[in-house]
Amino acid sequence: MGTLLSEDKQTHLSHVILQALQGTPEGKICGTSTQALKEIKRVLADSMNVEEQIHRLVRSRLQSYSRRIPEGSSEWDVLYEKTYREELSKRRLG
Questions:
Q1: Which of 18, 23, 56, 88 is the most exposed place for a label (fewest CB within 10 A)?
Q2: Cα separation of 80 and 72, whole Å?
Q3: CB-CB contact of 44 with 10 (8 Å)
Q4: Quick one: DSSP state of residue 24?
């Protein structure tokens, strides 16, 4: 699957998030804007890595079923979504 967002998109999204945070009373930034942007990008990268790990795990589980389920079928989609949500729950992310 690879990186979900290009470097340019991560940078743009980081700026959008920082602007949104600065526009709220709760959005107090410790340090400089540059430091905040780096931290936002780090959190985005960590989230994308977790997303990739869960995706691989779910695919592996579905492919290990004794009965082959065609990827892209409605059954695959339902089982993928269910297994994905379960994994998010286990990790306390959803």
A1: 23
A2: 10
A3: yes
A4: S
State residue 3's pLDDT score: 58
Domain ranges of the chain: 7-90
Residue 39 has a pLDDT of: 94
Task: Name the DSSP class of 28.
Answer: P
Residues 6+ apart with CB under 8 A from 76: 62, 69, 70
CA gap 74, 65 in Å, rounded: 16
Helices (H), the chain: 7-22, 33-63, 74-90
For residues 72, 1, 40, 43, the Cα torsion angle rounded to the nearest 10 degrees is 90
The residue type found at 69 is I
The residue among 31, 35, 30, 36 whose CA lies nearest residue 17 is 36
